[in-house]
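Table 4 source record.
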Amino acid sequence: MTSVTGEYLYNLEEEASVFDARVELDIVNDPVTIGAVFRAYQLSNPDYNPAEIEVPKAELKRRFAEFRRDELFVRAGHFSTTFGRGIALRSFEEIELEYDTFLDGLLVEYGGGWGDLTVLSGIAAEPLFGTRHRDHTIRALRASSDLGDRLAVGAHAVERSEVTWDEEIETLPDELARYDDAVFGGDATAWLGPMTLSGEYALREGENPLTGLGAVSGRATYLSGTLELPWLTLFGEYKDYWDFAHRLMSPPTCVREHLWTMMNRATYEIDADDEAGFLVEGSAPIGDMASMSGGASEARDHDGELKHWEIFGQADHRISERLTGSVGGSWSREYILGKFTERRIAACEVDVVLAGDAGLDVAFEAGQAEEPGGETFEDYLVSAAWYPAADVTVSSLAEATTEKGLASDTWISVEVRKLIADGLEISVSAGTERGGKTCSGGICYVEPPFEGLRLRMTAYF
């Protein structure tokens, strides 16, 4: 199978362009698969780099060979993996946010009647600043098993080491360049009728010369529970992370990741070295045509200082066979050095089914933000998507703000998507984009503002 994605954008304000292409190729000859990922990133002006990445103009980004037969899976080359909830180890790629922690090495997985076993060894490269980069070497083992129909357990051990390199300095001092630690953990999930309970605990031991504190002894605890009844669903999470941050891990945030654009921009990023908190949610149907959901989250450091809290809610109503409406809202505060940024956001959406395959979605969002200095401003966002046919989408987005000091206070863009054939989609968009924080799975990236033309192509064959 082959997938090709390409994007060309031309920024009118900068009078510069970017071409970004990615080709993923898998050649299958059962039981062997050979694959590769090719990446091209071309800048018309080296001073205009909206993704803020330093990569070759063209590179073989990834290559692998894998063997799969019955319960055995072996992969040599680049691979991603997650142990438990990602507390001890998680390697992955978030393409949109330019975040990549794929490991390069060997992954072996075996599943028998008793359970599953994973053994791996690999290296992940982390770009730093200037001429420096860091190599993360990981060696790990995980075993898991289902103990009947109601209980699953797992245990893992991860050995990690880091070496920092500088192309302009032949040898860095050990206190700056080297770091080693080990993580040992276990997890369990139990199904008790309508209730599901999960938990994971891990210990970290090692030397950390980078902080000047010598030995490090960290811990991480995660608990979750879900109760599903015909008339009510409840969900809760608890986290407690201490001296645990590492590039090759991505623990649960215990913070709601919203579908609404403005609410998701206010998503909080955790501090795995010093944080405890919770998330609770509930949802319930109201008759056959409506439902309500809501919840709250909070995070504090281990001294008790508040770092973040949020309250949110949403109601959905199927007004008729052709009309559905939703309203939602959130109120949050994020604290940094004792000062907070407060956000109040409201949103509503209407989905209309038109004749045939046609449809129309319209959403409106409004928010008020108060910054640490006491300044307040409002944001407004209107989005619409029209589906005149099953293979065509026309969408638009308009934003406005009263925030001071920005180059612009309004942004408008229009996009047209067309499915040319099975597996081939092309989109064209033009206008202005505000940019700002975008988050996915606990990883956030600040996109720069944009004015111009954007062409995208995606193909699978």
